[in-house]
Design goal:
19 helices, Methane Monooxygenase Hydroxylase, Chain G, domain 1, homotetramer, mainly alpha, globular
C-alpha cells in the first residue's frame, strides 16, 4: 500500500521553501513565488532530460527501426509541450514587479539562474558545442565539483550526434542519386533565378537599389552549391558555418523533398519536431532574457556577469539545429520536384502495401 | 553566500522521483511524467495557498483600507494566472495515453489524487461549505491524522467569510438608499418585462411554446424581489439557494451598478477577480475529471470510489462564489441606472479630486 | 502581382465591425471586443471544418493507405491546436465584465451564439447524433433557410462514420482471434477481480461500505463481456449505451493493446488524437457555458432559451467519441497482455524490416 | 431584430478566403491556414488599435483623474492578454512545415507580412520613433497611397507621448524633493558600492578578472547620476541613449519607490502594464522572426529584403518603453528607501482615509 503524499515524497518537496528574506528578518512576500517558480522549472528540466535521454538511447544504434522513430517522435512532441509550458511560466514570475524583486534580491547573492546544473546539462545533451558558448566565463563560473558533475552527466553522445548518425544511415540515396541531385540542383537554381527577377522588378517599381537583396541571393546560391562539393563542404565545416556532416545534410534535403513517401513521413515529422525543440529552447532563452532585463535592468547579475548582454547574445546565436532549420532556404515546391527513379521510389513504400 | 542549488534545496526536490514500476521491476517510461506533473501541481498549490492566505489576512479586519484592496486584487490576479497554468498543465499529463498509464497504474494502489491534502485545504480556504461536498465519503477517506491536519489548517475564516464581511462594511448604502433601490427594482422589472415580450415575439415567429422560458423569467423575478425582503431572504439562506448575507449581496449589486465611481472601481475589479478564481477552480476540476475519465474510463478509482461520477457532480455543483456570479442576472444597463443621491455620489469620489 | 491587403481581402474583413450600440447612439466600448472575438471564432471554425473535411475525404474509402493515416493524424493535431487556442480565447472575451456586457446586450436581440451555423455544421460533421441533442428546440430555433443550408453542408458521412468504417476494415483480427480474445477476457477479469479485492481491503481498513464501488465493478464487467456477445452488443446499441459497431469497438481494443507493433502505431496515435478532439470540443462547450453564465447569470438567453441549463447539459452529455474514450475501462497492463499468434504478429511489422 | 450572421457580417468575413494556389490550378492544402491565421492577426490588431487609441484619448489631457488611470489599466491588461494570444497563435501557423509552405509561396509574390498597414500603425501608435527603424527601406516599401494612409492614421500623439505627458504632471515631487533625491542617490550609490564589493569577492574566489563587470557598474553609476543633471541628461537625449524627458523619468523612479502609497498604486500598476506591453510586442516580433526564418531560411523575403537579418535586428532594438524598463537598474530595496517628508506622504493618501 502506498499513499499519495508518500508516493510523491511531499514531505521533502513541500518543505523546501525557506525564503532568505525571512531569515534576514525582512520578509518579502514575493520571494515564495520566486522560489517555487524556480523549483517547478527544475522539476520540468528533469522531465525533459529524462525524455531526451531516452530518445538518444533509442537512436544511438546501428539500425533504428521505423517504430522507434515513432516513439522518439511522440516523446519529442511531449518535450515540446513541456517547453511551451515553461515559456508560459515566465508570465507567472513576471507578476512580480522589479521593485518587489529588489526587496529580497540582495539576500540571494551570489545565487543565480546561471548556476542551474540541469540547464547546462540540457544544453550539452542537446548538442550545444562548447565553442559556441558566447562567454568562456560561463563554464568558469562553476565550482570544480560541478564541472566534473557536468562532464559526467554529458559523457555520452548528444541529441545532435545521434540525429546526425541516424540521418547518415538513411539509405535510398546512393543509387541513381547523381541524376536525382542534378535535377534538384537545376530546380533550386531556377528558383533562385526567379528570386533575382522578382527582386529586380520590385526594385524598379519602387526605385530602390536591389544590390543588397541580390547579394544575399548569390550567397544563398554559393551556400547551396557547396552542399554537393566535398571540398567546399569541408571548408564550411572548418569555418563553423555548417556543423552537420554532408551526408546527413543531404539526407535532410531528401527527406523534406520526398516527405509524402510512406517511409519518409515519420522521419520528416521527427525532424520537424527537432527543429521545433530548437526553436522552443531559443524562445525559453529569449523569455528568460526579457525577464532578467526587466527585473534588474542593466545591473550586474548576482552571478557576477553582465546578464543582459550575455543572455541576449546567447539567445540569438546558440541554436543547435540551425543547420537543419537553414535548409528551408533550399526547399523546392512540389511541382518542381524531380521524380524519383523507380528503384528508389519502390523502396519508400511500405512493402505490405506494394503487393 | 548562498548557492542556487542550496537555495532551492534541489537535493531534496530533485531526489523525490522514485517510480513504483521500477521497484516492481517493470519500469514504465511514463511514470516519471506522472510523478513530476503531480509534484509541480503540489508546488503551485502551495503558492496559491500562500497568496490566498495573505489576502484573507488583509481582509479579515474591521476596516480594510482602499490600498489593501489594491494589494488583494494584484495577488488574486497572480493566483488566477497560476490557476490558468495549472489548467494548461493537464495537456502535459495527457501526452500519456491510457494504455501507457495502465502499465503502472496497478502499482500505485491506493495512492490517488483524492488524497491531496493541499487541494482539500484550498477548497476549505476558499470557503467550500462542508455540506456542499457531494459525497460525505470524501472526508471519510482521510486518515484520522490527516483529518486533524486539515481541520487545523483551515481553522480561520475562509475567503468567502472575509469577502462577505468586507462587503457588509462597505458604506454608502444606508442613507437615501430606499429611493435608490426602488428605482433599481423598477429598472430590473422593466428589463424582465422586456425579456418576456421578446420571448413571446420570438416564440410566435418560430411557432414554439414560450412557457419554459417565461417560467424561468418568473423565477428570476421572484429571486430578484427576494433580495430586498429580509423574511424571504432568510428563507433562501435556509434552503441553501443563497449563501451570502443579504447586506453583502446588495453591496455586490451596488458596486456593480456604480462601478465607474472612483471609490468603487477597485472593489469592482477585485470582485471580478474573485469570480474569475471561482471559475478557474471549476475549470481545474473539469479538466481533472476529463483527464481521469480518459485514463481509467468508468473503472473504480484507485482511491476506491467511482471517480468519474463523483468528479463530474462536484465540477458542476461545487462553486464557492456562485452567489456573486449569479447576480449578473440582475444587472441593468448604464442608461437604465438610477442616479445616485448627491450625498452618496460625493462620497464615492476621491476627496482629493473633489476639491 | 498580389498585395498583402488584397490577398487577405482586408477591405472586407476589417470593415465588418459595426457596433449596434453606436447605431443606437449609446456607444458601449466593449462591443468591439464582443464582435471581433466572435469573428475570429468563426474564422477558426472555418479552418477546423476545412481540415476535418479533408480528413473525412481521406478516410472515406475502401482502403486507406498507411501514409494517409499519417496525413490525417498531422491534420487532426493541427485541429486540436486550433481548438486549444479557441478555448484560451474565452479569456479574452472574459476581460469584459457582466456589467459592461449589459450596456449593449439589449441591442443584440435576438442575435445569439446559438445561431452559429458553422458550429452546428461542425457538430454534425464530427458526428453528433441528432437524438443526442439535449433540446429538440435547438434545431427549431433555426430559420427554414438555415436548416436547409445545414442539411446540405452535412449530407456526407461524418468523422464518426468514417473512423468507424476505417476501424472495421483493419485486418489482423480474424484468424486465431478466438484464442487471443479468450486470453484477453481472462486478463480483464483478473484485473477486475483485483479491483474488487482492493476495494474490500480498503473499505475494511476505513470501516466503510464497499457496495457502491463493487456494484460499479460488476457493471463494468457486464459491459466488458457484452463487447464479445453479438446479441448483447446489439441491445447496447439499441439502448444507445453504445454507438460504435462491435467490430470497430474490438478494433480499438486491439489497436490499443498492441500499439507498439509498427503497423499499429500510427492508427493508435490517430485514435488518441480523435479522443483529444472530442475532449477539446467538450472543453470549448464548458468554457462557453461558463462564459455565458457569468455574463447573464440565470437570465434567458437572447436566443430565447434558458442558456445556462441547456448549455451545461450539452457540455456533459454530447460527446461524439465517448465510445472510444470509455474503452480505457478495459485496457490491460503490458505484463498481462496475451502474446499475439505469430501469424498475426508478423503481419504487424513493416515488411521491409522483417526481411 | 438582428441576426447573428448579419450582426457579425459573416457573409463578408467568411467569404474572404481564396487561395492563390487554387487559382493557379495547384491547390496547396496549407494555404487556407496561412490566410486565416493572417486574417485573425489583422482582426486582433484592429482590436488592439481600438483599445490603445481609447487609452491615448483618456491620457491626452491636462488633468487625468485617478479613475481614468484605472480604466486605462484595465484596458491595457486586455491588450496584453490579446498580445499573449497572438504570440501563441504562431504555434498554429507553425503546424505548417517549410516544405508545405514552399508549395504555394511562389504564388504570393510580392505579398508579404511586411505590408501589414495595421502593424505599422500600431508601431507608430505605441511611439516607435522613426529613426529607430532599423532599415529606412521599411517605409520605402510602402506604396505612396499607403504612406499617406499611415501618416493620417498616426497624426495624433502616441502612447509614449501621452504616458510621458501624464508622468510629467504627477505632482508631489517639487517640494522637499531635494532632500529626498539626495537620500535616494546615496541609497543607490551604496547599492552599487555593494555590487562592486561582491564582484571583487567572487572574482577572487574564482580567480577571474573582475574588470568587465566593474566597468559595467561604473557605467550604470554614470547613467544614474546623469538622471539628476539637466545638462548631462540633455546630452543623453541628444545621443538617443534616453528618450523620455528628465521629469517623466524621475516620476517613474518616484512612483516605483513609493508604490505602496495609496495614490501611487494604480499609476505603478499601469506603468507595469506598459512595460508588459512593450515586452509582448517584442515577443511577438521574436516569434514572427523565428517563424519566418523557419519557413524560408535565409532566402530573400517575398517583400524583397533579407527577412531574417532585418527582423532579428528589429526584435532586439525596437523597444518603445526601454527607458522605463531600464530604470529597474536603479531601484532600491524597501529597507533602503528614504522616508518621504510628511507633507508629501500626506498627499499620497486618499483624503477620505486620512480623516
Amino acid at each position: 500500500m502506498i499513499y499519495y503524499s508518500d508516493y510523491l515524497q511531499l514531505d521533502k518537496v513541500l518543505d523546501a521553501q525557506h525564503p532568505e528574506s525571512d531569515k534576514h528578518g525582512a520578509p518579502a512576500h514575493e520571494e515564495m513565488l520566486f522560489i517555487i517558480t524556480h523549483q517547478t522549472f527544475e522539476l520540468w528540466f528533469k522531465q525533459v532530460l529524462f525524455e531526451v535521454g531516452s530518445i538518444i538511447k533509442l537512436l544511438d544504434r546501428d539500425y533504428v527501426p521505423e517504430s522507434d522513430v515513432a516513439v522518439c517522435h511522440a516523446r519529442l512532441r511531449r518535450v515540446n509541450r513541456i517547453m511551451e509550458l515553461l515559456c508560459d511560466q515566465f508570465s507567472l514570475i513576471e507578476t512580480m514587479t522589479p521593485s518587489e524583486f529588489m526587496d529580497f534580491r540582495a539576500f540571494l547573492n551570489p545565487a543565480s539562474g546561471f548556476q542551474s546544473m540541469q540547464w547546462r546539462i540540457l544544453e550539452r545533451t542537446l548538442g550545444l558545442a562548447q565553442d559556441r558558448r558566447v562567454l568562456k566565463h560561463y563554464t568558469d563560473a562553476l565550482a570544480e565539483q560541478h564541472k566534473q558533475q557536468l562532464d559526467a552527466a554529458t559523457a555520452g553522445p548528444s541529441l545532435f550526434d545521434v540525429v546526425q548518425r541516424w540521418l547518415e544511415k538513411i539509405p535510398f540515396m546512393e543509387s541513381g542519386a547523381y541524376a536525382f541531385w542534378d535535377a534538384y540542383k537545376t530546380a533550386v537554381q531556377n528558383m533562385l533565378e526567379n528570386d533575382r527577377r522578382e527582386v529586380r522588378t520590385l526594385a524598379e517599381t519602387e526605385h530602390r537599389d536591389p544590390s543588397e537583396a541580390l547579394n544575399q541571393i548569390d550567397a544563398n546560391e554559393r551556400g547551396f552549391l557547396a552542399l554537393f562539393d566535398a571540398g567546399q563542404y569541408a571548408e564550411l565545416l572548418q569555418q563553423g558555418s555548417r556543423r552537420m556532416s554532408q551526408t546527413a545534410t543531404l539526407a535532410v534535403l531528401f527527406i523534406s523533398t520526398y516527405r509524402q513517401y510512406p517511409l519518409l513521413q515519420l522521419p520528416y515529422q521527427f525532424l520537424d519536431a527537432v527543429i521545433e525543440l530548437d526553436k522552443l529552447v531559443s524562445l525559453w532563452r529569449y523569455r528568460h532574457t526579457m525577464m532578467v532585463s526587466r527585473m534588474i535592468g542593466m545591473r550586474v547579475g548576482t552571478g557576477g556577469s553582465s546578464g543582459h548582454e550575455y543572455l541576449m547574445r546567447t539567445t540569438m546565436q546558440q541554436r543547435v539545429f540551425d543547420d537543419v532549420t537553414s535548409l528551408s532556404s533550399f526547399l523546392i515546391p512540389a511541382h518542381a520536384t524531380p521524380a524519383l527513379p523507380a528503384e528508389i521510389a519502390d523502396r519508400l513504400q511500405f512493402v505490405n502495401e506494394t503487393r
